[in-house]
Amino acid sequence: MTLVQMQPRSASATPVHRTAVDAMGTGAPQVCDDMTVEVALSVMASARTGYLLVCDNDGLCTQLVTQAQLAAVRDSPAYTDRVQLRDILGDRGPFTSPVTSMAEAEHAMRCRLDALPVVDEQGSALGVLAPAG
């Protein structure tokens, strides 16, 4: 998995310690947790993305939800068109800090994540780290 594109540099160049904020994408759609699953899937399709950042009523990022997660909920026998994102999401997180090293972020993603939200100290979403390509 490659999260960032590497640029060629001279042999005498000093290595740069990249952080999550250096590599994150900032265009991830943010939606409120009271949105229904069906509407969330529609937003994803319109935005041509595989995930959404879910925020609470205070605007704080609570989760990242993927198209696969929402499709599984929609295809379950218990699904109704009234199921909201807050009904299907668990605890907050996981998240990463903007100052997390790329090595740490890549490790977290290799172990368990398709994408990783980047949040500030207050919990507001800054962007998303996702595999390139």
From TrEMBL:
InterPro entries: CBS_dom_sf. Gene3D superfamilies: CBS-domain. This is CBS domain-containing protein.
